[in-house]
Input
Amino acid sequence: MKYSEEIVIGKVLGPKGIKGEVKVLPLTYSIERFHEVKGVSIIIRGEKRRLNIEYVKPYKKNLILIKFSEISDRTTAERLRGVELKIPIEESPPPPEGSYYYYQIIGIEVVTDEGRVIGKVEEIWETGANDIYIVRDREKEYLIPAVEEFIREIDIDQNRMTITPVEGLLEIYEK
Output
């Protein structure tokens, strides 16, 4: 099956039990959306494959267990360790109002409300309170909290995030 652009919705942490279930770290705004996904694509040993989801169930604090129809034992499930689970972008529902998928934020240009180009978002760190956008240019790195106090506007169509920096926000961190 050929896909257009795909997004990562989870990462396999390892097998669970002997029946082929895998522990998955969801990389999406809602664990519930896994119940809507029928299958995912993976790349394993350089080969792209499609796996059909048999069932999904909650596991521990922020993880889920997934059983794929094609995986029936622990040994095969172990081969999926570290694999990203992807779906076609067009199968992804829009995020809630005022929320964005990571793929929409990574690579976006960051400018101040005065028009100064800061760099591009290269990483997102998840913290307990809020995400932190790691913005880099060629020589500098900035840590921008993903909160309304600093983020004035995110324009996905223009690939631009406008921030209102306060004193100390744009301190430089060594890479």
About this structure: The chain has two helices and twelve strands. The longest strand covers residues 47-59. The mean pLDDT is 87. The radius of gyration is 19 Å.
